[in-house]
Amino acid sequence: MVRFGIIRHARTRWNLEKKIQGREDIALCGQGIDEAARWGDILKFEKFSLILSSPMIRARQTSEIISEKMGVDIAFDINLREQDFGCWEGKRITDIRKNEPGIIEMQESRGWGFCPPHGEDRKNVLNRALKAIRKAADSFAERHVLVVTHNSVMKSILYHLMNRAFLPDEEKVMMAYYLHVLVWNKKLMIEKLNHTRLQ
Questions:
Q1: Is 82 a catalytic residue?
Q2: Which domains does the chain have, with CATH numbers?
Q3: Are 188 and 158 in contact (CB under 8 A)?
């Protein structure tokens, strides 16, 4: 059995500016560096034995700061990188809604088929994220692994496990900047949703 704790990377300047990052490799801002350090202080009591991270710089920096606090190694998997948001990267959702009326609503209505122009759909995000988790479960048996990844990746994994349709009228269940706990025992399951909050 492998237990996974999963968190989103700490904040970047684009997070604060509410810009879509996607594959843009944006570093943590000062606030994000402080957040990652706080995560390290909180999570060192969870007894993780390894960090598995997206290789994107915002996730890598978050992992490195937490690793220093916890004294554990880091492994990287490219399949944990953020969704490709194509033409929307660097833009704000509010600006897209204003300048391209209806396009976001149309994509949201597609649920798992949501795909930004020239970007990546949610089904592909899910498939590669699950591939990373399965590989980790095979490689790190009987370990407690902290996964540091991105919002779209986290949502894809958790919504899949909850059999959600990924539609905008569904109740919001995943709280921001929380640790969620998954367990792999022949299959992946949610053990605790919204388990530990970044304070």
A1: yes
A2: 2-197 (3.40.50.1240)
A3: no
